[in-house]
Write a structure and sequence with these properties.
By secondary structure, this protein is mostly helical. The chain has a single domain (about 5-50, about 85-140), classed as Orthogonal Bundle (Non-ribosomal Peptide Synthetase Peptidyl Carrier Protein, Chain A), CATH 1.10.1200. It contains five helices and two strands. A two-stranded antiparallel sheet has the order 1-2. Helix 2 crosses helix 4 (about 85-120). About 5% of the residues are buried.
Length: about 140
Amino acid sequence: MSMMQEFREFAIKGNVIDLAVGVIIGGAFGKIVGSLVDDVIMPVVGSIFGSLDFSNLYLALGTVPEGTAPTLAAMKAAGVPTLAYGNFVSVAINFLILAFIIFMMVKQINRMKRAEAPSTAAPPATPEDVILLREIRDSLRK
């Protein structure tokens, strides 16, 4: 079997297609959560902690040229090495929200699977050797 045939068989399996759809939806969902964090949650958190803009929090690691504005964009434009920990805080909050939402989704799916499992579970089929042994037993009784 050639490598192309193996790849084609792998690519058309249902699980691979489901994974691809999940990655695409996950990317879009990540953008939604990113917007929620950046545009809704972080401004509220910033207002609680005194009008902080988390995306602009940094620590200058080099000498700052005279006359450079004290913003992250100005520091980067001036070539000053910076530790932009505010962006990390935003990304960490984004991750926590996304992880919590995925946890809740998986929990809900597992609950639905448990609820439907007893109603759809058919009794297991009797193994063939047991059937043959029963037939032998019944024929010996006669």
